[in-house]
Amino acid sequence: MKDSKLNITEIRASVGLGMVFSLRMLGMFMVLPVLTTYGMSLHHANKTLIGIAIGIYGFTQALFQIPFGLISDRIGRKQLIFFGLSLLILGSLISANSYSIWGIIFGRALQGSGAISAVVMALLSDLTREQNLSKVTAYIGINFGITFAIALIISPIVTREFGLHALFWIITLFTIICIIIVMFFVPQETNHKFNREIGIMSNSLLKILTNDKLIKLNISIFLLHTLLMCILIVLPNQLQYLGFPVSRHWEIYLITMIISFSLVMPIIIYAERNKCIRHIFLFGITIILLSEIALRNSINSFWILIIGLQFFLFAFSLMEAIIPSLVSKESPLGYKGTAMGFYSTSQFFGVAFGSSIGSWILTRFNIEGVFLFCILIAIFWLLISLNIQEPQYITSMNITLSNKILAISNLEEKIKKQPGISEVLIITAEKSLYIKIDNKITNRNKIEKFLACIDKINN
């Protein structure tokens, strides 16, 4: 039985890369709640250009996410991480020294072009044993939601005290810290290996793009972030209009996010335990629709606005956790890394589209028009999701095989016959066994014992 405790290399990799991921995402999120209000003081600023400044980061992130992941397989992980972080620093410095909205737009575009999320996950895979990979990737995933909440809370405080440009100086500082962490704390990759559960495969892009279940999930994450950005475009101005000063917006974000997180985790645990993710998925979309209806009717009511926001942030946090779980469950065996790459790309395209279209509607019409658009989006999302199926409650894993085991005849058939194994894929060139298992019936230790047993019999 393999040791499942994290060794020193895995601890340094997970903590170091987790900090890199969090600090980088914190820098991105910090700008979102305040640019719509404080950004209007920039030269040539208008609501449409503010929306572009917010969304251009997501657009360049989406554009370069998959290419960065593929290139890192050729030239190495750390080199590409340094390059991506350097682009983030350059974009942040340009934004920090720009007093025109056009300078902010250009800086934000450069910030987003350093799309290293897939590369960070690939390096994590290189430095972590397969039996511990699920633990460390879960740790990284949890950081995403926490980072979003922290950014919403602290950015209004920082901007009030030091101004909008201070955010970009803070992002620059965070990015320098990230470079130092990668350089001196994260271990050097000595065993570059490709793991289909993490890495992106260029020859499988079409397979993922034509998968009906994954298409719906990618549309879902796109729409979720479209709705988020539309709300963040109008919310600060609406709170101001209702008499709540920008300097105190963090209080609302803090309370609503604490309530959201406290409700989400028990629901997710319940859904997994009772195998009812489909119902929770539809419940989440329904709550989003109700929240948008409440927000549209909150034009002259502060408390209806708060109720609508609370409903939305609760449902957003719920869906942000459920959708990647469904992508993981529905991904074809051996193609989860590619599927997650498209998931991230769809997510960032949602950020870009939502901020741009939200600002355009706000400029051409009004706040009610933005919320009406959100209501229509939520209805469309609910309608296309009604026939979504309950996923199989299985786990994907990868086991490295020796040459002796690979030489065993009918190996794939023998593994398939074992209890709790639903799918098997053996990639001889990678010396890898990819399987989907039911954790209630079997686990990694049982499978490894079985492989050791048939290896002994054949010898």
TrEMBL record:
Q: What is this protein called?
A: MFS transporter
Give the UniProt entry's GO cellular component terms. Answer: plasma membrane
CDD domains the record matches: MFS_YajR_like (cd17472)
Q: Which domain of life is it from?
A: Bacteria
Q: Which PANTHER family match?
A: MULTIDRUG RESISTANCE PROTEIN MDTH, RESISTANCE PROTEIN MDTM, PUTATIVE-RELATED-RELATED
What species is this protein from?
Answer: Candidatus Pantoea edessiphila
Q: Where is each Major facilitator superfamily (MFS) profile domain found? A: 13-393
PROSITE patterns the UniProt entry points to: MFS
Can you tell me where the transmembrane regions are?
12-36, 48-68, 80-99, 105-124, 136-158, 164-186, 214-235, 250-269, 276-295, 301-327, 339-363, 369-388
* One family name in Pfam for this protein: MFS_1
Q: What SUPFAM superfamilies is this protein classified in?
A: MFS general substrate transporter
- What keywords are annotated for this sequence in UniProt? Cell membrane, Membrane, Transmembrane, Transmembrane helix, Transport
Q: How does it sit in the membrane?
A: Multi-pass membrane protein
* Protein's cellular compartments: Cell membrane
Question: What Gene Ontology molecular-function terms does this entry list?
Answer: transmembrane transporter activity
